[in-house]
Amino acid sequence: MTSFAPLLQAFFTDRLISQRGASGNTIRAYRDTFRLLLTFAAARTGKRPSALGIDDIDAPLVAAFLEHLEHDRHNQVRTRNHRLAAIHSLFSYAATGHPEHAATIQRVLTIPTKRRQRNLVSYLTPAEIDALLGACDRSTWTGRRDHAMLLLTAQTGLRISELISLTITDVTLGAAAHVRCVGKGRKQRITPMTALTADTLATWLAERGGWDRHRAALSHPHRPAPQPRRDRAPHQPLP
């Protein structure tokens, strides 16, 4: 019986890191998936995770694991499908290296994703945005920071993860003011800022002080600069 542990380790080191250059977020998501799967498989088979074989992680077990995610852990269908995609990726990788387990691998790969209802994305009206901005107490530094964050988010459409990851080098003020971010799939994009947003952000940055290039643009005024993210490619200068 082929052990599952060496396959899983090779999948992370060879496929995800060396071949695909997966981001830190992707690696963490896959890690969480297989941590949950191994815990479930160990409880179901009575074997230690290190003793599990590829044939132990068969289609019935994977199907039961997906049901466990939905009904016991109360995960959304979207999360279930993301976990299944990670499992499919592992078994696709295993297919060429372990043909002796082709039947088990093929049955796992045929497990379909689950259809889900896709709701329309709602949006805030101008009046609702004004109400949010007006709720910030700008007599305090936290209120001024929150006002700058909300205004920047409403105007640029940045995701929360993108917003809190902004550093000084991501922000260009003055003529052609814009912010640069790395979003999902490590795709870089540049979003222009209006004069009001740029002025508000410039005022906040001047109050906050400290121009360390790795420091979060919307961080605490007196908090030391955080360490740079290791999963993020270094910025290239604008042409």
UniProtKB/TrEMBL annotation:
MF terms in GO: DNA binding
Stated name of the protein: Integrase
Source species taxonomy: Bacteria, Bacillati, Actinomycetota, Actinomycetes, Micrococcales
Database matches in Gene3D superfamilies: 1.10.150.130, Intergrase catalytic core (1.10.443.10)
Listed GO biological process terms: DNA integration; DNA recombination
Domain Tyr recombinase: 119-239
Pfam name, any one: Phage_int_SAM_1
Alphabetized UniProt keyword annotations: DNA integration, DNA recombination, DNA-binding
Keyword Endoplasmic reticulum on entry: no
Region Disordered: start-end pairs: 217-239
Keyword Phosphoprotein among record annotations: no
Chain coiled-coil ranges: none
Residue ranges of every copy of the Core-binding (CB) domain listed in the record: 2-95
Biased composition (Basic and acidic residues): 228-239
